[in-house]
Design brief:
Layout lengths: L5 H14 L1 H38 L1 E6 L5 H13 L3 E7 L1 H9 L9 H5 L7 E6 L5 H9 L4 E5 L2 H43 L1 H9 L4 H41 L9 H30 L3
Helix pairs in contact: 1-2, 1-9, 2-7, 2-9, 2-10, 7-9, 7-10, 9-10
Length: about 300
């Protein structure tokens, strides 16, 4: 693109948007709404995945130690546990500590377990935390194969349901984003097609005086990109205001669900949404130019 022509291209794009202002406004509004829904789906997915990660990390794997192994073998087992794929943290729990914790359980505070049981029936154990809910089952399977492990429990049904819910949430978000993106591209393509139709005489004259293909195409591309970018900027503003209000007010009522408050984590997704708006504009324009502008 010749730098001298940039001003002309932008001027033509703005003239075209003004000429078809009603359709441009309708397209901009629809793109904004679509990107708002896409952004909301992204925020929901991110927060739900963070919540699932927290639940998964809170889901402990209990590793019961075989009573026949020596103290040195217990120490070696602890070291091996830390090397298992998916394991984040390992804590040793002696049988005495296990009994004390059981005694401190609010449901058993009225009972003297030591007096009732006579002896401590609990085995020594390890508490293992996985890196994520998806890694719990993998870590548990790796642990079961280690020497000195008597039994492994980790709430298989809960972990499986959490993993399935996370996968379904991701799939649903992808489907929603794909459908809305398709709708936005169609609307931008329609707007550019009408712009081409309204300027058909002008395009014909430009061809006759020897204007190059891209000289004719660039104003339409800029128009499509501007519609996509403006829609994404408005959507980001609306989403930012709504999410900030959610963090400030609603989270007090649902404090058990930790919402992401670090905007450094959300910044890449905001930039992706901004870039996505421009990409929608380019895609819609490209479709219209290839179908309706034979240059």
């Amino acid at each position: 693109m010749n730098m001298k022509n940039i001003g002309f291209f932008f001027k033509e794009a703005f003239i075209s948007m003004k000429r078809n202002r009603l359709l441009a406004f309708a397209t901009l509004s629809t793109v904004t709404i679509c990107l708002c829904i896409v952004g909301a789906a992204m925020l929901l997915t991110l927060n739900m995945e963070a919540f699932m990660h927290k639940l998964g990390s809170d889901q402990e794997i209990k590793v019961y130690i075989n009573a026949t192994i020596t103290e040195d073998e217990v120490s070696a087992l602890g070291a091996e546990l830390r090397e298992v794929t998916g394991v984040e943290k390992v804590t040793y729990v002696s049988k005495e500590q296990g009994l004390r914790e059981l005694q401190e359980d609010s449901r058993l505070k009225g009972y003297d377990l030591t007096g009732i049981l006579g002896s401590n029936p609990l085995p020594d154990s390890f508490r293992v935390k996985a890196e994520s809910v998806e890694m719990v089952e993998t870590a548990a399977q790796g642990i079961e194969a280690l020497y000195g492990v008597d039994d492994v429990t980790y709430g298989e049904n809960i972990v499986q349901k959490l993993a399935e819910l996370t996968d379904n949430l991701r799939l649903g978000s992808i489907i929603i984003i794909a459908l809305l993106a398709f709708g936005s591209i169609f609307l931008i393509a329609t707007t550019i097609r009408l712009s081409i139709f309204s300027r058909r005489k002008e395009v014909t004259l430009m061809r006759l005086i020897g204007a190059g293909n891209w000289f004719i195409r660039w104003p339409f591309f800029i128009e499509g990109i501007l519609l996509g970018l403006l829609g994404s900027i408005i959507a980001l503003g609306l989403l930012g205001a709504a999410y900030n209000a959610l963090l400030s007010n609603v989270q007090i009522a649902i404090s058990f669900i930790p919402l992401i408050s670090d905007f450094g984590v959300l910044r890449p997704y905001a930039l992706a949404l901004l870039g996505g708006g421009a990409l929608l504009g380019v895609s819609g324009t490209w479709i219209s130019l290839n179908r309706f502008l034979k240059v």
